[in-house]
Amino acid sequence: MASEAYASRNPDQVHTDVLLQARQACYKARDAFYDCVKNQSDKKPTELGCVGLLYPAECKKARLAYENSCRPSWVKHFDRLYCKEKRVQRLLDDKETRGGV
Amino acid sequence: MASALSRTVNHLRKAYRFANSHHVGQFRSLTSVPPSSVLESLPLFRSIAPLDFRIPPISIGQRFLFRSIQTASPAGTVGSESAKKVEEAKPDGGEKSGGSSEQGGEPGKPVRGGPVSWLSFVLLALTGAGIIFYYDREKKKHIEEINKSSQAVKEGPSAGKAAIGGPFTLVNHEGKKATEKDFIGKWTVMYFGFTHCPDICPDELQKLASAVEKIKKKAGFEIVPVFISVDPERDTVDQVREYVKEFHPKLVGLTGTPADIKNVARSYRVYYMKTDVEDSDYQVDHSIVMYLMGPDMQFVKFFGKNHDDESLADGIIKEIKQYQGQQVKKGAPTP
Fold first, then answer.
1. B118 or B163, higher pLDDT
2. Which of B67, B69, B59 is nearest to B25 (CA)?
3. By C-alpha distance, which of A55, A2, A15, A10 is closest to A32?
4. Mean local confidence (pLDDT), B111-121
């Protein structure tokens, strides 16, 4: 899968990694990874994914699987979305502790 | 009160007739008799009521005219006194003259009221009422017009149509040339995206495919979904073919040269731009919208990302029904 993503830019070749099967696999791996991160949220995030996403070492395996199933630009895209979501969550949750807007 | 009113009106009427017939004669007699008082008063009259005017303002002229006749006849001194009275009475505006006219009214001569007489009140009231009624009628007419026109507009689709759509020349997923003429006669929903889209385009196309099925089940209308790529460099015909066949058998995929894509995106007001360009990969940022085009390839309605497939199907059915209703009114055949 990953090798195909880095295959030579042959214009006649169909990029199968964006077709249905590949997409489904990517989504699954992505969800698995993010679930892992959520489950292990009490652990200290030490590893660094792209775009500044931190995740604990326990999820490293899931991360590798995720990076393999999806195109790198997709990985970045999903990470960015996830960080945005987390930021919004943090804003909503920490309202009491921070005090004030 | 009423009798006095009628008396004054009668007197005034008589006075008018009097003035009309005797106007010329009286003035001549005035000039021929030169007691000092009258000479004094003459320039007054000249300034007040120019003697060139024969007809209006009769009321002012005849008032002072008869005053002077009265005063001129008895004696000079009395005349001068009353002339002075006239002078004072004029700025007063008629109250004094009204008062002194009471004296003059007794021997049966025409009563000179002030400038504000009962007749003038009546005229004013009539004019006022007339104006009010006239403008009221005009206003009602205007409001009716507005109501009518706004109703007529509500029946139609909207206040005018957006200038979206236009001719295009692209290649469909089977490799054949496709223009907008190929879609005339059918309802189409066009979606702009690219195959390398991580999540949005697949979701939208899935939604579109499901909506097409729902519409077929609910109302029996045949809709042609169209996918136009905004990433012509990577989306070749083969790529597009493989992509669209996974969603719906009727989904038509269109691609073309970058210039053609630019053309069609411009005519449909679709924004698209390459973002985070890595060494071999990039994303394309684009507007997420579906355009519903009528059987004559005229723009009808757009649907954004906020609709789910249910509301999308309902919206499309509603638009088609409204369009067909309009066609029936026009008497044209419905496709």
1. B118
2. B69
3. A55
4. 78
State how far residue B318 is from chain A, nearest Cα, in angstroms.
32
Domain boundaries, chain A: 15-98
Supply B67's token pair.
């005053």
Beta bridge partners of B229: B193
Which conformational region is residue B175 in: left (phi greater than 0), alpha (psi within -120 to 50 degrees), or beta? left
What value of ipTM does the predicted structure carry?
A: 0.70
Average pLDDT over chain A reads 71
Taking the Cβ of residue A44 and every Cβ of chain B, the question of whether any pair is shorter than 8 Å is answered with: no
Question: Closest-CA residue in chain B for A75?
Answer: B198
Q: Do B198 and A74 touch (CB under 8 A)?
A: yes
Residue A77 touches partner B, C-beta closer than 8 Å? yes
B248 is an annotated ligand-binding site residue: no
Chain A nearest CA to B282, separation (Å): 7
Task: Summarize chain A as % helix, strand, coil (round to 5).
Answer: 70, 5, 30
Say what the alpha-carbon torsion angle B111, B114, B117, B121 is, to the nearest 10 degrees.
Answer: 170
Backbone angles phi, psi at A3, to 5 degrees: -65, -40
Q: Measured between CA atoms, how close is A53 to chain B, in angstroms?
A: 17
Whether A37 has a pLDDT exceeding 90, the answer reads no
What length is written for chain B?
335
Nearest CB among A14, A23, A76 relative to B238 is that of A14
Instruction: Give the residue carrying structure tokens 């106007």.
Output: B23
Is the pTM for the entire model greater than 0.90? no
Q: Is the pLDDT of residue B112 over 70?
A: no
**Cβ contacts of B195 on chain A, cutoff 8 Å:** 15, 18
Q: What pairs with residue B286 in β-bridges?
A: B272
